[in-house]
Specification:
ten-stranded antiparallel sheet; elongated; 363 residues; alpha+beta
């Protein structure tokens, strides 16, 4: 299954409160705050005055707040995410039209349940999560080397990063050292972007007790501020942004930050293999094959990322060595494959094909 680019969590601002029809009830419920003895208040069109409004999560939205700054500017924030309409929580994300529908549902809820009437004419995105969910050919865990390389290839501006597992709050945390990393992330800060790649199947199982048929990977890009959204999509007004815009942004991002750097990596990988083969090759030596593999493994341990993705990338270059016969070259190839299984099994699990699978499905 290949899903298009979709939205999940978004933060909306730029709207205003046109009227409040249940002021006394909201004050009684501590939803509306009216500070005494201050000069600045929010004012609605029906002449209601208040200092701030706070509403926690409902079925229609995640959070709603409205208030006024010390310099007299009114502001509002409405946080939305994919509703659990189909029993799979946010597996599929939502289209831009569905996001607008969700915005209208939030407006209806606020008016009917709280008497708060909103005007979304100039509503804008303040924060936006764009994601794509792909079905993997294998379990998420086996992609750990391609994913480690993928995170390394991201640009240096994504300087903040890490890896962690996802657990339910009541999960048994014994034997953590045996758990494979489930989540990879990078960030350029609060006003930049955040990248997160994680095991969606495991996340839904651990957090929501939802079991999927198959292994799914989630690729998320969060645009953390309004300026970043404008730069990425050309506008941050809710009515301006469509599915084509977010799809183009995701596709361009994958090409520029994952596909093109991977091509550059393969060039460097080829140069490294050539250097190591020429350095270690000794026709009279019985250990030059093993020594080559051990040096590659040592480099990977030191760098904490793959330097050679798969043994076939090495064996395909044996023709640069001065073997006297085709048979001796063939024997060297078989020796590499055998030694790899014994001394460096991570080099014979087709991780280059797995990286290319991820690229193919993300595009």
């Amino acid at each position: 299954m290949l899903t298009p680019a979709r939205l999940d969590k978004v933060t909306i601002y730029g709207f205003r409160i046109a009227a409040i029809n249940k002021m006394r009830d909201l004050v009684r419920r501590n939803i509306v705050t009216i500070k005494q003895g201050v000069k600045l208040y929010c004012r609605t069109e029906n002449d209601r005055y208040f200092s701030s409004i706070r509403i926690e999560a409902t079925d229609a939205f995640d959070y709603f707040a409205y208030g006024i700054t010390p310099d007299g500017m009114e502001y509002g924030i409405l946080e939305l995410s994919v509703p659990d309409r189909f029993g799979c929580y946010n597996l599929y994300g939502m289209t831009t039209d569905e996001c607008r529908d969700q915005l209208q549902e939030a407006a209806l809820c606020l008016e009917e349940e709280y008497g708060i009437v909103l005007d979304f004419t100039e509503a804008k995105y303040k924060k936006m999560e764009i994601n794509k969910t792909i079905r993997l050919d294998e379990l998420f865990d086996v992609y750990y080397r391609p994913l480690a390389l993928m995170m390394y290839l991201f640009p240096g501006t994504l300087r903040l990063g890490g890896e962690h597992d996802v657990y339910r709050k009541d999960a048994d945390h014994t034997g953590l050292q045996e758990r494979r990393v489930k989540t990879y992330y990078k960030s350029s800060g609060k006003r930049g972007i955040t990248i997160k790649i994680y095991d969606k199947s495991e996340q839904l199982k651990n957090v929501h007790n939802v079991k999927l048929d198959g292994s799914f990977l989630r690729f998320e890009i969060t645009l953390n501020c309004a300026d970043k959204i404008k730069k990425a999509l050309g506008s941050n007004r809710v009515k301006d942004i469509d599915d084509a815009a977010i799809q183009k942004y995701l596709d361009d991002f994958v090409v520029q930050n994952l596909a093109s750097p991977y091509e550059a990596f393969k060039v460097k990988e080829k140069k490294l293999i050539k250097k190591l083969l020429k350095k270690n090759y000794k026709p009279a030596s019985r250990t030059w094959v093993r020594n080559t593999l051990l040096e590659i493994c040592s480099m990977e341990i030191d760098k904490k990322l793959p330097v050679v993705l798969d043994i076939k990338n090495l064996t395909e270059m044996l023709n640069i060595l001065p073997f006297q016969t085709r048979q001796s070259r063939y024997n060297a190839k078989k020796n590499f494959e055998s030694a790899c299984r014994e001394h460096a099994p991570v080099l014979c699990q087709n991780d280059d094909e797995r990286y290319e699978e991820l690229l193919r499905k993300l595009l």
